[in-house]
Amino acid sequence: MKTQLDQMEEEGLSRRDFLKYATALGLLPFINSQESKAFSSKAKGKIVIIGGGAAGISMAARLKSWLKNPQIVLIDPSDRQYYQPGFTLIASGVYNADEVWKKQENCIPQGIVWMKDTVTAIDPVTNEIRTAANGKVSYDFLVLTPGLQINWNKVEGITYDTLGQGNAHSIYDYRGAQQTWKAIQEFAKTGGKGIYTDTYTKHKCGGAPKKICLLTEHYTRKQQAREKVNFHFYTASKVLYDVPYFTPRLLDIYKERNIPIQVNVRVKGVDTAAKQVHFEKIETVNEEKISTFFKEDYDFLHFTPPMSAPDFIRDAGLGWTEGKLAADSWVMVDNETLIHKTYPNIISLGDCAGISTSKTSAAIRMQVPIAAKNLISVMEGKEPMEKYDGYAACPIVTDYGHVLMCEFDFAKQRKSSFPFSLMDASKESRLAWLVKVYALKPLYFYGMLKGYA
Ligand SMILES: Cc1cc2nc3c(=O)[nH]c(=O)nc-3n(C[C@H](O)[C@H](O)[C@H](O)COP(=O)(O)OP(=O)(O)OC[C@H]3O[C@@H](n4cnc5c(N)ncnc54)[C@H](O)[C@@H]3O)c2cc1C
Questions:
Q1: Given 3.40.50.970, 1.25.40.10, 3.50.50.100, 3.40.50.300, which CATH number is that of 152-307?
Q2: Is 406 a catalytic residue?
């Protein structure tokens, strides 16, 4: 059955339609409707956007509405636009798999040239891109938004193609999320030992591994199967969550649910035939790093693969070359302006950007207007003046019905953008669950990607 939104989309959703819908859904506090209308520029130049996900399409929409003469090419090979925060909700049976994606052709703003192709190389000195099918493409200004690369093979024993074998699952993939939901239901029937891990690299939505652990735990309680199941969480970090305002409550929840946490532990490999995870524990003693290796049996495993910037970023010399962000070659941009440190005609945001905040679409919602205005300033020959404060949000789903809405900035101080000022944000709430399950997806497809939110 078609929803009102589907109908509006087919007819070409207008800004007025969206605002009407947003009012009905209580989404207005999320929308910078005045700002998105007021600004405009006569700046000229060919802009190429690499990657049409959360960041790329939102940038295309903003730039198109703010430039009087937009000349924008967006390169992306994908037929589909996925709302990735929905993967956690697929993996817990809250959403159906088909609820989280739309055809890419319906998401790309009108007036933007879509080159359905894959970028293989960039030469930032000659302002040229190489693509798999269309050869060379030149640009005056480049927006780098190809997201991140998931390095499945960096977990020994795992490949993308064998994901799910040996009951080793990951929600960091659309197919993986669907497999995970089947496996969780089965796990509640059979019982056993569940192991949940994150990874040692920066990864998108750092909360996702914690969410799927807590949701599985609650699911087994709902199925009257909790006593048959043991849960164990292993993190590569030195704490479960490093935003102090939210950490105590999250630790309490894990304690209340009897889920022990091991810190400073990373997955080296998985023996899917023997159902064993191989771990390395890294501890610092007198400034010396000491590794110990051990293995654990499991019946159900949820793991997080290591992630990095796409290889073509590293090959083009566009990644950080020193500091913590160098190993995975995250794009070397200024933390606040998002402009590349070496090439001022390049801007980057979203998951591939080398900035010291979390990789979430909530962060991208705040980065987009800043990046778009700064790029336009560069196009006008002016200094980029807009500054990003590192805002990111991670709604940590703590059970079926509650969410701890973690919002923070570069300094890991709590920062609120959601209309929760009347409630205690240090605890999980029903309201935040309703926002997560019902409001954020339409906000993504009809607000953010259209350049309204
Ligand atoms: C399980 C999970 C749970 C999450 N939960 C949350 C949450 O609760 N809240 C939240 O805010 N965020 C969450 N996120 C994170 C959020 O989805 C990402 O931060 C966001 O999608 C990143 O947007 P992006 O535009 O940088 O990259 P993407 O949306 O991944 O888009 C990248 C685009 O680039 C294209 N591309 C890639 N390589 C090339 C190439 N070589 N040439 C051309 N195009 C290319 C791809 O086809 C894709 O369309 C979650 C993510 C996952 C996986």
A1: 3.50.50.100
A2: no
Q: Does the pLDDT of residue 284 top 80, yes or no?
A: yes
> Which atom number of ligand 1 is nearest to the Cα of residue 81?
49
**Domain edges within the chain:** 4-148+309-391+439-448, 152-307
**Ligand 1 binding pocket mutation candidate from 80, 84, 95, 130 (most atoms within 8 A of CB):** 84
Q: Residues in the chain, how many? A: 453
In terms of Cα–Cα distance, which of 399, 393, 164 is closest to 301?
164
Q: Which CATH number fits domain 4-148+309-391+439-448: 1.10.230.10, 1.10.132.100, 3.40.50.2000, 3.50.50.60?
A: 3.50.50.60
Selected residue with higher pLDDT from 146 and 424: 146
- pLDDT digit string (tens) for 53-69? 999 999 999 999 999 99
- Per the CB < 8 A criterion, the answer to whether 405 and 217 are in contact is no
d(CA 209, CA 219): 15
Catalytic option among 107, 205, 213, 406? 205
Q: For residue 213, indicate whether it is catalytic.
A: no
Among candidate residues 168, 184, 250, 262, the one with its CA nearest the CA of residue 217? 184
pLDDT tens-place string over residues 169-181: 999 999 999 999 9
Q: Which atom of ligand 1 sits closest to the CA of residue 365?
A: 11
Q: pLDDT tens-digit profile of 92-105?
A: 999 999 999 999 99
Tell me which residue has its CA closest to atom 19 in ligand 1: 360
Nearest CA to ligand 1 atom 41: 119
Per residue in 408-425, pLDDT tens?
999 999 998 766 555 788
Given the residues 107, 213, 394, 406, the one annotated as active site = 394
Reported in sequence order, the residue ranges of 128-221 that DSSP labels E, i.e. its strands, are 128-131, 135-138, 141-144, 149-150, 168-169, 192-197
